[in-house]
User: What shape does this take?
Amino acid sequence: MIHTPLKAFHEEYGARFVEYAGWEMPVSYTSIHEEHNQVRSSGGIFDVSHMGRIHVKGRHARKLLERLCSRRISDMKQGQCRYTLICNAQGGVQDDVIVMRMEEDDFLVVVNASNREKILKHFNTIQAENQDRATIEDQTLKTAMVAIQGPNVIDMIAKISSEIPTLKRYRFTIKNLMILKVIIARTGYTGEDGVEVIIPSNMVSMAMKLLLKDFDTKSPDAPIKPAGLGSRDTLRLEAGMPLYGHELGEDICALSCGLDFAITLDKDEDENGIPFIGMEALKKIAADGGPAQRLVGIKLDGKRTARQGNIINLKDTPIGIVSSACLSPTLGFPIAMGFVDAQHAESGTAIQIDTGRAPLDAELVPLPFYKKPKKVPVASA
Assistant: This one.
């Protein structure tokens, strides 16, 4: 297994580890429920170093990424991040990624840990086929990545930086902390505000001390505490965010996933526009009435939870399958996401979930389950 550069940090805080995509990662430190609520109420820090970081640079870097990504790359500004899909020729999803534009012909692509080697191979194959002049470098093991998320995080960062709190969502800046060069992006995967930080792996110990020097993370009432992958999953599920292998996959149509904002089917119509791989297949599906199934939110009655793979029934007729589920720590009742036949995807539809035991009564509801409250400006005296 690959050990994250923050292994010593995790051990210091008593982490419980699991294997994930070939990495030894902290699943929790105290409990998933406690860490979830800490992030929702104040702030948590996650190690996400297992996420792949692929550097694409050179004269044809933009053209290469236009072919690979389902959203436009050309109109991105320097310092901008963009969420996008990488599709296969059939319109299935190879991965969902964040593209960061460092300079005109210089990009960093953050990919899912389980897909890093597959996506690297795909990038190199498409580059070779089109003879694109670009270098592709896997920087995953040279760097670490942490996410600091929660409603109080930006206010706390404002005490040590005037620039970072002014970043708009999906923007990033490059900061020099003493001898460290770090990338700080206003992105995240929890439904809360916050930042994600990319650090040289050989400087992790120093970087963590600098990042957390004003916070006693071991105090019972610490504003920021370590959080593991377990709470990251329940947080993203409440926020209606898809997870590869659950709501996204090679055999799942990209138009089924509730991510239409991340799919630009006319990106080849611009001057010098370039179609992305899978675009023609998705255009045909859209023209033929859309995908056969749609991703939906599910609110369950009672306290029993569903599981991935459970069949969704409508009056004893199978109409879909559960993709993710948990007992929501924030809302206090079981929630799930799943795919159902498009004609039955309307919110308010009463369904049953077959768990192999007594069926669970449930209702289709809009996504997301949770939206962070809007901050009310403090009136000046």
User: Anything to note?
Assistant: DSSP finds eight helices and 20 strands in the chain. Residues 1-291 form a domain with the Gyrase A; domain 2 fold (CATH 3.30.1360.120).
